[in-house]
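Lecture 7 notes: from sequence to structure.

We start with a single chain of 404 residues. Read the sequence below before looking at the structure.
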Amino acid sequence: MIPVSEALSRILSAFAPLPPETVALPDAFGRVLAADLRARVTQPPTAVSAMDGYAVRSADVANVPATLRCIGEAPAGRAFAGGIGPGECVRIFTGGPVPDGADAIVIQEDTDAEGERVTVREAAPAGRFVRAAGLDFQTGTVGLPAGRLMTARDIGLAAAMNIPWLEVRRRPRVAVLATGDEIARPGDPLGPNQIVSSNSLALGAMIRALGGEPVDLGTALDTRESLAQRISAARGMDLLLTTGGASVGDYDLVREVLGDRGLALDFYKIAMRPGKPLSFGRLGEVPVLGLPGNPVSAFVCGLLFLKPVLRRLQGLEADEGPALTARLGAALPSNDRRQEYRRATLSRDHGGELVATPFANQDSSVMSLLSRADCLIVRPPFAEASDVGERVEILSFEGGFSRL
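Now the structure, written as tokens:
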């Protein structure tokens, strides 16, 4: 068995960012930029007012009250034709271009208007409520860098930058193959010894949440013919993801059939719990990640290995940062040589600190506890017994895992 860190390093070394494709701006949400986005316009294109009021010369309102003559107006999108001189002002609205000669805005609440006569009751220094040209960005400014995962806010910025089309990384196509005579799809008739399969659907949802496109290859029976037929459909995919058939039982044929078709196996078995029988290799041009059949094991391995692969394929930086920690809400026994990931709930104590309380049942087939969990407690190999209140590392299902 190899350590988790070594397994991840060897898996990631087999992948590189996918080529770009061009999409319309409305379709760029959740996609990763393949090139810098540079503004095609200056925003605002000219100095504009930040408030409704009057455009004035600051020198004319240095001493108040001051009476000025209003000579026109400047609504948003239409400039006042001409400039203002001493003793003059222009009625202006938010977003309206500041007329030549004006250098400040007096808000309308600080004025009294009667016909063309406007009495200013509050002084306005130069620059007051004026948005300078290019305050937001200028033509050629890099507003969004390559490698950025596009959010709703970024879509708005790109629109303001006058960018209708942009280059993004192609979505990774991941073929998902479940195996085993004992599993049936949700809603299908169940035989006396069958269970309902959840892996394909859960992993498909994970792939979509992480920006990929799942391709469901269905369920292969425990026969060479069925496995070979399903596996052949993965040609041209960016990754083949299998679940089940990765251990050493008499009917676990996945690795054997893949081997017959030319699988170059990199490794098999990882020193972790759950998820020990995980394998990785390459079938021609298609990388193959073999996940365990137990649903919790498959999901945990997906978080630890599939997520980083999908990030790399989309040109995203490694999802690394300071380790999250919490106080332990229940005592834990010492650990063996395998790195362990325990499902747990999160709460806060009276001091506001996070408390991670592991479930007593950590069986890798119990999906209900995974659904109820808020995090995974990470326990390194040979960790000593831990008491309540000790600090432990956690992988939270919030933040980067919020859609998983």
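The longest strand covers residues 339-348. Keep this in mind for problem set 3.
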